[in-house]
Specification:
Helix content: 40-55%
Structural class: alpha/beta
Oligomer: single chain
Strand content: 15-25%
Shape: globular
Number of helices: 28
DNA sequence: CGGTCGGCAGTTTTT
DNA sequence: CTGCCGACCG
């Protein structure tokens, strides 16, 4: 292959990053600077120019999507398959290692992965057996405690137990939870990483093998690595290994879940002679947008230092809309999107970004009112839905009867005459004898420790699972899934549910069968039982839906966190208020405030052409009206980049007594009411003016009545009175 | 065993 | 104001 294909399309900094001979390379890649491109071409360069075997390359990402994309793009660039290359998330690579070396890692061969919901349930269960007060030790907090320690590489027994009562109890739960996991062959997400790390420590020969094998390690989104991931990498790379890490300290937004932005600085110290390359040329946004982003992020301290620039045009000023309240804000966004659509902007070119999910609702209503199609990202993923997880837990229990988490989840779903009394009996016995729930059930039945009715029900359950698991080696995966949902009564169970809910759940269960079919065809030439194991891993590790949502041109709505890595021609960044963004909880701690600022930087740099910022002076949140001042992030943008928008009546401030002094657009000056004004209606009572539409005879006004809610009224008929 | 009611919490999310 | 979870009751 011609090397020029790999280098020619790149700028100088990118070329350097792709072709450097340095043993250690740190690429500081600004937003929109072609980061993925560099990573892909770097690997291409290593394989083609350096003649490295794909077998000797390990590339690590944070999401399955990124891993998938990387492999696809490398193969497209080189026009060949790179099968032997390991490309995956930290978790999937750790998982792969543990599957291959389960014995060395001290795990049973059929270990299963717990997602965070499973983990929380198991923690609750553990706490119940320990008789811990859930008021004093909230399970969520315990979960956080456990995961945090694991992320820092700390086992319960290694933690100093010379501490306060509160922590001491958490440690006890941590330990008991671990014991439960070990006995049931269960591994949570943090455990995958920790075990993989301990594998290096406990098995130097294994470490050496992989260190030798992976001559070059590449890491994407390096600023998001946590302590254990960093330690794992450091071991693997060792003194000899070559490594390329790519990241952007200004886009580190996951500190709250353990990511250590300091790892970037640490890298420079730990890996001597690191070649640092900055990618600062941006190919995404207008100069105006970049200047705003640069200005905001400049308020942070201890940056690695980077300034985005572009050869492109300066573009439109940033629009800033000050809304009276959140409804007005949403209305503005919707009306702008409608106007943009009329100028031939596709809906999918537009994104609405917000700090927290709770904000989406009002926006959604406004889009609905305008008849604009939208899609909200986030929310429950397919494999996380309750009915899907139930079905999967049957498969898990069939696969490994010791899986207590699965046992607990489905033993009474659908209901089959096994009540809390019976279960309590089983749990106690299991705890006493250090047995799995499954074996405990068997023995309790045998010992006649239950009423005849309960014993019969429990026996029937065990037999049903055994009956199903005998078919694992005989039937195809999809048939097996189908058998579970119909024979075990899940379908019938949801059929009985009233309302839309049951129907949707049944749809989902059928979707699960299709997913299994799809999986069969993708991963063929495997034994049936193997296939089941792989499928279970897949559902735990790749919660992404198999089929992307049906093609529809719609407005994209998501949180700022979700938007990372994406780009849109038009971006609305809403809710820029002190207390909301930066969030209340982050305002007083400098470190957390800086992370909020980086989040803002991420949001702004998503925009390619047009950026709209909005905030509401009053916002109803948690049923309470609160007044807010504009976000400091707005004020950190140079004034000359911003153009303030005033809609309709041109009154952005609802202070009634000030309306006269506010500038009025001549065309709208005749409007008898202003936005935010309080009015009285004969039938609907008092309310607040939210918006106008039309003029003259047809002029309509939208009023949010205190009691009757929001209504559109024709001004001519409405006989509204000002309350002032 | 399933339904209902009351209390309470309530950034951000991937694996 | 929601939505979720747990307790309680029929």
């Amino acid at each position: 292959m011609d090397m020029s294909e790999i280098l020619d399309s790149l700028n100088d900094a990118q070329k350097t990053a792709v072709s450097t001979q340095a043993q250690r390379t740190l690429v500081l890649a600004g937003a929109g600077s072609g980061k993925t491109r560099v990573l892909v071409h770097r690997i291409g360069w290593l394989l083609e120019a350096q003649g490295l075997s794909p077998y000797r390359v390990l590339a690590v990402t944070f999401t399955n999507k990124a891993a998938q994309e990387m492999r696809t793009r490398i193969e497209a660039l080189l026009n060949r398959s790179v099968q032997g290359m390991w490309v995956g998330t930290f978790h999937s690579i750790a998982h792969r290692l543990l599957r291959m070396h389960w014995e060395a890692a001290g795990l049973p061969e059929q270990f299963q992965i717990l997602d965070s919901e499973d983990q929380l349930r198991l923690i609750k269960r553990t706490m119940q057996t320990l008789q811990v007060d859930e008021e004093r030790w909230p399970p969520k907090q315990v979960q956080w405690f456990i995961n945090n320690h694991k992320d820092e590489g700390r086992r319960a027994e290694k933690i100093d137990n010379n501490t306060d009562q509160q922590t001491l109890m958490m440690l006890r739960i941590y330990q008991a939870y671990e014991d439960n996991c070990q006995r049931a062959g269960l591994v949570d997400f943090a455990e995958l990483l920790l075990r993989a790390y301990e594998l290096w420590l406990k098995q130097p020969d294994l470490l050496e093998h992989y260190s030798n094998r992976f001559e070059h390690v590449l890491v994407d989104e390096f600023q998001d690595t946590n302590t254990i991931q960093y330690a794992w990498l450091k071991c693997l790379i060792g003194e000899q290994g070559q490594v390329t890490v790519v990241g952007d300290d200004d886009q580190s937004i996951y500190g709250w879940r353990g990511a250590k932005i300091e790892n970037i600085q640490l890298f420079e110290q730990d890996f001597k002679g690191t070649h640092i390359i900055r990618l600062e040329q941006n190919y995404r946004s207008t100069e105006t947008i970049l200047r705003a982003a640069n200005a905001i992020i400049a308020h942070n301290d201890n940056r690695m230092g980077k300034e985005l620039w572009t050869q492109g045009c300066s573009g439109d000023p940033i629009a800033l809309y000050t809304a009276f309240n959140e409804v007005d804000e949403a209305r503005y966004v919707a009306s702008r999107i409608k106007a943009l659509a009329e100028q031939d902007h596709a809906y999918r070119d537009t994104a609405i970004l917000y700090r927290s999910n709770a904000q989406s609702r009002v926006l959604e209503e406004a889009l609905l009112r305008e008849g604009l199609p939208y899609r909200i990202f986030g929310g429950l993923r397919f494999f996380e839905r309750a009915e899907i997880k139930n079905a999967l837990c049957y498969l898990r229990l069939m696969f490994n009867t010791a899986d207590d988490a699965a046992f607990e989840r489905i033993v009474a779903v659908p209901p089959r005459g096994i009540g809390e009394r019976t279960l309590q009996e089983v749990r106690e016995y299991a705890k006493e004898q250090q047995l799995s729930m499954w074996v405990a059930s068997e023995q309790i039945i045998k010992d006649n420790r239950l009423s005849a009715r309960a014993a019969r029900a429990l026996q029937a359950f065990l037999e049903q699972i055994i009956g199903l698991s005998e078919r694992v080696n005989v039937q195809k995966l999809a048939q097996l899934v189908e058998a579970v949902i119909s024979e075990v009564g899940l379908l019938a169970y949801h059929q009985k549910e009233k309302g839309e809910k049951g129907r949707v759940r049944i749809e989902n269960l059928k979707e699960l069968v299709s997913a299994a079919k799809e999986f069969e065809s993708v991963v063929d030439d495997q034994e049936h039982s193997q296939l089941l194991a792989l499928f279970l891993d897949h559902t735990a590790l790749e919660s992404r839906e198999l089929q992307a949502d049906a093609f529809e041109d719609s407005v994209q709505m998501m949180t700022l966190h979700t938007a990372k890595g994406l780009e849109f021609p038009v971006v609305f960044l809403v809710g820029l208020e002190e207390g909301l963004f930066p969030h209340q909880m982050s305002r007083n701690e400098p470190g957390r405030l800086e992370e909020e600022r980086r989040l803002c930087y991420v949001g702004i740099t998503r925009a390619m052409q047009h950026l709209y910022l909005t905030y509401a002076e009053t916002r109803r949140l948690y049923g309470r009206e609160k007044r807010h001042v504009s976000s400091r992030f707005i004020r950190e943008i140079p004034k000359e980049l911003i153009e303030e928008v005033r809609m309709g009546s041109k009154v952005s401030r609802p202070m009634l007594h000030n309306t006269e002094s506010m500038p009025m657009a001549s065309s709208e000056a005749e409007a008898p009411f202003s936005l935010g004004q309080r009015v009285l209606h004969q039938m609907f009572g008092e309310g607040t003016v939210l918006g106008f539409e039309g003029s003259g005879q047809n002029a309509r006004v939208q009023v949010n009545f205190d009691v009757k809610g929001s209504k559109w009224l024709v001004l001519n008929y409405a006989k509204l009175e000002s309350t002032v």
